[in-house]
Specification:
This protein has 116 residues and is mainly β. It has one helix at 30-35; strands at residues 2-6, 13-17, 23-27, 39-43, 47-51, 56-59, 67-71, 79-83, 89-94, 107-111.
Length: 116
């Protein structure tokens, strides 16, 4: 299925392909817990930025492997990118920024990022 999404001001827009989204992940690491993200992970090759107008800025912490990308105008983080355990590139999409998601139909998976 093809999905679309954006930051709040719509300057950063993206699309991605994924099987039907049936669940989501909540991570308890220091940044995800504070930001309240609801995540869906996909291979980076399934993700495409439609528009961003030079409007992304990046924040890295701890191991600096994950690029947390934010819109410079509205400061919403719609996605982040980094390596999977096998070092292939992945994108973690904040489902709060995806058009048409119905949370009541999704199951939750809790990820213990705090212990890493």
């Amino acid at each position: 299925m093809k999905y679309t999404g954006s930051c709040h001001c719509q300057k950063v827009r993206f699309e991605f392909e994924s099987e039907e989204i049936q669940g989501w992940m909540m991570c308890n690491c220091s940044i995800c817990q504070r930001r309240g993200h609801i995540l869906h992970m996909i291979p980076a090759s399934f993700f495409h930025l439609i528009s961003w107008e030079g409007n992304l800025t990046e924040y890295r912490f701890n191991t600096k492997n994950i690029a947390h990308l934010f819109c410079k105008t509205c400061w919403v983080q719609a996605f982040w990118k980094g390596p999977m355990p096998d070092w292939t590139e992945m994108i973690a999409i904040n489902l709060n920024c995806v058009d048409g998601i119905v949370y009541e139909k999704l199951s939750i998976h809790k990820y213990d990022g705090k212990s890493l």
